Amino acid sequence: MQYKNLGRSGLKVSQLSYGAWVSFGNQLDVKEAKSLLQCCKDNGVNFFDNAEVYANGRAEEIMGQAIRELGWKRSDIVVSTKIFWGGPGPNDKGLSRKHIVEGTKASLKRLDMDYVDVLYCHRPDTQTPIEETVRAMNYVIDKGWAFYWGTSEWSAQQITEAWGVAERLDLVGPIVEQPEYNLLTRHKVESEYLPLYTNYGLGLTTWSPLASGVLTGKYNKGNIPSDSRFALENFKIQENMKALDVIALLTPAVMEKIETVFQSKPKRPDSYR
Which residues form the NADP-dependent oxidoreductase domain (predicted)? Predict the structure, then answer.
């Protein structure tokens, strides 16, 4: 396993991470979660992702309990969670200062942790001033509840606005974005975000690399295999780790052949001629 800095920060994260979306709480109990998490760690994974909305908070509870029972040193792992959808109330969702502060405290309680390493804004909130969100995320960092903050599925313009506020107020900007990225969804990562990598050192932790399993070919005939993700979330960790062995094989020639099949590479902003 290789470890890379998350954006321009000094935080080292494994190339592969484990996410609790539609697994913990929905299909896995603590015993099964412990087995999966330990398998990840045995294979070098140190980055574990969650969100307040996953299984309505139960995913955070299971992950926290599993990590505690496994006896891991907190300093050995990187834990992230995401804030946006916290409940049915009018102030239980979004990125207001109220929900960011209260949602973070609730997530930490469920995780049974003093802090998370990375706190994401799970989606952009067009009903809350961006300055309020940036100030609130910095408040969380100042309180020691998170070390870094990031975004998920924000546009380049929204991330740029957040950085503009942060720089104007001498605050911490978002160091990482978590977008969907696969052969069917490429525009943000390969085109829209390009200036952000240079201007702000934006890091990426992408989700849905197989387009929720569509790219595996399992669903081509409209059938849903009984052991598939659509039917049951039960990732095989050891099998997923083999993805690291493929990286060295993705030569320019191979990538060109893949592009010939998918024809999904986005055009750069300066090449619309």
Answer: 16-245
